[in-house]
Write a structure and sequence with these properties.
Protein name: Copper amine oxidase-like N-terminal domain-containing protein
Helix content: 25-40%
Keywords: Signal
CATH topology of the largest domain: C8orf32 fold
Organism: Neomoorella thermoacetica
CATH class of the largest domain: Alpha Beta
Distance between the termini: 41 Å
Largest sheet: 5 strands, antiparallel
Number of helices: 11
Pfam family, one: Cu_amine_oxidN1
InterPro entries: Cu_amine_oxidase-like_N, Mao_N_sf
Strand content: 25-35%
């Protein structure tokens, strides 16, 4: 609990302060699975995403408070009771709401100090859901909190979006709304590193998943097409897809770099990498252990053999084998500035004629943890430390005995 509390306090103390808005002007929106929200059509990036549970939309407290104009000084967290309190103060009047994590009571205290008197009215209602504490962040049910502070909340089921308006104002049919966002695939993960359990909610645009599946289907069936059908297919391909196809088809056996360099997936994994790095950084992990923390997440994904590699986004949602998990790990680490190489142990080294793929990561000697026997590959004057992605329990630099005397082809990720 100590580490979770530290993360939460940091989150609460870094709330942005928004300027006041004129009556009728204010409009905020949060979309499930989206890592930004809007206030009067201005986008503000979040490091967490809203999600739906028990038919209620949950929003991280720091961003909900931000959208409602509540500054950091008016957000408090009581570790002992697990209570969050938000206070909206205007002049001599204020509204204060408080909720406890995993409890359904919401208490509102309204105070009016006009005419040198102070009147306080307290009211408690029972919500049908409770606030949640996930990865050190408190998530609040958006509707209850916004309405307790006098706002009107509208839910758009088609776009999975919550709109928050001034009291008495709502979204009406025919009003121009922000462009509907992509629908998202939401997936939760739980894994263990350094004796601690972590959970993470990830959202992936359905458009990216559909795109990845289409690419993989095209590659899987390419050799079944006649030359004429291949020419016709190329004529109707967007340029970036044709470039990816050519890179995959022309790559040497075991060279997964085209799958890592695919633009949409590499951009998508950049935001994921920053979230994972933030989680590791909040625990005080150094550069080596941050990479090992990310490795532990990739290891926790289901191992599923596929004849072809999977793009990083597909592996994240569906799992994958050594090929696909290595692509995902290398993508995440590349986005964080780590130098990596891909290792391909050819099929002839194994009785099953399948071969093996892995990743190795460059570190300086002063970055290595003391007292650990670490396996490394030398490449261009640097030591790259082995990372086994297929199963949990393998620390960074630990190598299966079966592979220790095998030869591997090296493919540097040098773009």
């Amino acid at each position: 609990m100590r580490r979770i509390t530290i993360i939460l306090i940091i989150a609460l103390l870094t709330v942005f302060t928004l300027p006041a808005y004129a009556a009728g002007e204010f409009k905020a929106s949060f979309t499930v699975g989206q890592n930004f929200y809007t206030v009067n059509n201005q986008k503000i990036v979040m490091d967490a995403v809203p999600f739906v549970r028990e038919n209620r939309t949950y929003i991280p407290v720091r961003y909900l408070a931000n959208a409602l104009g509540i500054d950091a000084n008016h957000i408090t967290w009581n570790e002992v009771s697990g209570t969050v309190t938000l206070k909206d103060a205007t002049g001599t009047s204020s509204v204060e709401i408080s909720m406890r994590v995993n409890h359904r009571d919401l208490t509102t205290v309204t105070q009016n100090g006009a005419n040198n008197s102070l009147r306080a009215v307290a009211r408690t209602e029972t919500m049908d859901v409770a606030p949640l504490l996930i990865n050190g962040r408190v998530y609040l049910p958006a509707r209850y909190v916004a309405e307790a502070l006098g706002y009107t909340v509208t839910w758009d089921p088609d776009t999975q979006t919550v709109y928050i308006m001034p009291g008495g104002v709502s979204i009406t049919p025919g009003e121009t709304l922000p462009a509907p966002p992509d629908q998202y695939l939401n997936k939760g993960y739980i894994w263990v590193y350094d004796g601690l359990q972590y959970s993470w909610q990830v959202a992936q645009p359905r458009s990216l998943s559909n795109y990845n599946q289409s690419l993989e289907k095209t590659i899987a069936g390419w050799n079944d097409l006649s030359v004429y059908e291949q020419v016709l297919a190329r004529e109707n391909m967007p340029a970036e897809i044709a470039q990816f196809l050519d890179a995959v088809l022309n790559a040497p056996p075991g060279d997964l770099r085209p799958w890592i360099k695919e633009k949409l997936n590499l951009e998508y994994t950049a935001s994921l990498a920053r979230e994972l790095e933030g989680m590791a950084g909040s625990e005080g992990y150094d550069r080596f252990h941050r990479a090992e923390f990310i490795l532990s997440f990739v290891q926790s994904l289901p191992y599923i053999y596929t004849p072809l590699p999977r793009l990083a986004g597909e592996t994240l949602i569906k799992g994958g084998d050594c090929k696909s998990k290595s692509i995902l790990l290398a993508s995440l680490l590349h986005n964080l500035g780590y130098q990596t190489i891909l290792l391909e142990f050819p099929p002839e080294e194994f009785a099953d004629n399948i071969g093996h793929e892995a990743v190795a990561i460059a570190f300086n000697r002063d970055e290595l943890p003391p007292g650990r026997n670490l396996f490394a590959f030398d490449y261009n004057g640097r030591s790259y430390y082995y990372a086994e992605t297929t199963a949990t329990g393998w620390g960074l630099g630990e190598m299966p005995e079966l592979l220790q005397n095998k030869k591997a082809a090296i493919f540097p990720l040098d773009f």
